[in-house]
């Protein structure tokens, strides 16, 4: 069995790839630039672009299962491109990374970010292929963006101060993905992935300061300042989508991102990692 991993050099895809490779599975990494991909020896690397369907048939040739992820406003088209080619090349099962909220928010009330994921899911579930969908909440690794502040003046800035979020450790997402790819019984299942607790940004900063043994202070910034940072990292369209979801969450005051779901524990047979667990495992990133 050969498993193709998209996003193979990224935060989630890289972890999925590493776990599959360590367990001895035949894995193939898809990346737009194989020359720049720094991956362990023994992993087959193929060059392809989810935005260019003509580059995908060779990458999918001989592949049985796929871990599919794409980010931002291109997700709906990129996922649909791969699914369409996968139907023609004999792929049996796709595990798709989506986002929490697709089932918790009605379509007519959705944000652009939610609609992109909803449309991507629809392309897969209506394809006739076996599928598993992972819907994680926000990633704990977002806190890595606070590393410079933690090393500097100790002031962590965010536009969200008191909105509880049950963030999830990307390692848990990757482990669930590997189980879905390598074990029977996950086809046709959708998993909502959260951590074991809902913390506000202020509370996350307090936990991080406790773990690091440093006095950190939280300071709220405007959404406009946050959007400028997002646009620089991910582009204008994606930044607009993220900010629209953020504004809606802040205005409603009753956001689904604070809800806890049991699916990590159900799949893995253990408690999901807490934010403190994550912080303790990443102290070197803040050194």
From TrEMBL:
Record-annotated NAD(P)-binding domain positions: 7-184
Segments crossing the lipid bilayer: none
Top-level lineage group: Bacteria
Database matches in Pfam families: NAD_binding_10 (PF13460)
Protein name: NAD(P)H-binding protein
Species name: Streptomyces melanogenes
Lineage per the UniProt record: Bacteria, Bacillati, Actinomycetota, Actinomycetes, Kitasatosporales
């Amino acid at each position: 069995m050969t498993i193709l991993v998209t996003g193979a050099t990224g935060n989630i895809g890289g972890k999925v790839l590493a776990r599959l490779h360590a367990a001895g599975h035949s894995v193939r990494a898809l990346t737009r630039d194989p020359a720049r991909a720094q991956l362990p020896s023994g992993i087959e690397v193929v060059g392809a672009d989810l935005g260019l369907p003509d580059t995908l048939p060779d990458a999918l040739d001989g592949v049985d299962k796929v871990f599919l992820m794409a980010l931002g406003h291109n997700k709906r088209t990129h996922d649909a491109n791969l699914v369409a080619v996968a139907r023609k090349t004999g792929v049996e099962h796709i595990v798709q990374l989506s986002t929490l909220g697709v089932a918790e928010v009605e379509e007519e009330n959705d944000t652009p970010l939610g609609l992109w994921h909803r449309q991507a899911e629809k392309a897969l579930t209506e394809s006739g292929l076996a599928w598993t969908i992972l819907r994680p909440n926000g990633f704990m690794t977002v806190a890595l963006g606070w590393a410079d502040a933690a090393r500097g003046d100790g002031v962590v800035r965010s536009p969200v101060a008191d909105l509880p979020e049950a963030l999830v450790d990307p390692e848990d997402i990757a482990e669930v993905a590997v189980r879905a790819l390598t074990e029977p019984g996950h086809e046709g299942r959708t998993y909502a992935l959260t951590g074991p607790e809902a913390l506000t940004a202020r509370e996350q900063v307090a936990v991080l300061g406790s773990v690091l043994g440093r006095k950190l202070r939280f300071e709220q910034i405007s959404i406009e300042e946050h959007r400028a940072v997002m646009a620089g990292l991910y582009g204008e369209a994606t930044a607009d989508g993220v900010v629209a979801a953020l504004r809606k969450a802040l205005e409603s005051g009753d956001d689904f991102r604070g809800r806890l779901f049991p699916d990590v524990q159900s799949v893995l047979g253990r408690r999901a990692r807490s934010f403190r667990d994550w912080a303790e495992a990443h102290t070197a990133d803040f050194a």
